[in-house]
Design brief:
single chain; mainly beta; Jelly Rolls; eight-stranded antiparallel β-sheet; four-stranded antiparallel β-sheet; 1 helix; 4% helix; 51% strand; globular
């Protein structure tokens, strides 16, 4: 019985917990930050995962979490496709764009919600170092807005076969506030 419990605790969706390695963590300090960047990402993993909590400074209820990637520098061109599905507890909404300048990755809460309410996100970047195919992302996240939940699912594509070694996260609604935190993990194959 104890062996089964230990096995269940040390396994996540078929992935052994040891298959995840911490690469870097960024926590926003006083004064906020316009973006979060992970640079010099080693090409030694099969996939990447970003886990984060975030809040923006703008006076809107929710803001979009966006991701851009690149090799050596961030690609700010219209080289991204993205899809998302989200809701406010009563109305589901979906959208998609092509030739976008970023990919959707989740949602962040903003200043019009109660103090200290943060949105959460888990973003997978699949086959990030493979130079034979375009790169894809998938995101899962959401926020609690004082009784009105906001789930968020997304997928994206960077139309490039270049390996990813730099990632930038931004929000559509102002700077990240203090204590917003993102951690980057490498996933072994």
């Amino acid at each position: 019985m104890i062996g089964n419990i230990v096995a269940a605790i040390t396994s996540l969706g078929g992935e052994d917990v040891g298959d995840f390695e911490s690469i870097a963590t960024v926590t926003v300090g006083a004064g906020g930050a316009a973006n979060i960047e992970f640079t010099s990402i080693p090409a030694t993993y099969q996939h990447l995962q970003i886990r984060g909590i975030a809040r923006s400074a703008n006076a809107v209820t929710y803001g979009g979490l966006r991701i851009q990637v690149g090799n050596g520098s961030i690609d700010t061109g219209s080289n991204y496709n993205t899809h998302d599905l989200y809701g406010d507890g009563s109305t589901p909404t979906s959208s998609g764009t092509i030739n976008n300048t970023n990919m959707y990755a989740g949602t962040v809460t903003s200043a019009s919600l109660g103090a200290n309410i943060f949105g959460v996100a888990v973003i997978d970047i699949l086959d990030y170092a493979n130079t034979n195919k375009n790169k894809t992302t998938r995101g899962l996240g959401g926020a609690e807005g004082n009784g009105s939940g906001y789930p968020y699912f997304s997928s994206g594509a960077w139309r490039s076969t270049s390996a990813i070694n730099i990632i930038r996260l931004t929000t559509t609604s102002g700077n990240f506030v203090q204590h917003s935190t993102f951690a980057l993990y490498g996933i072994k194959g």
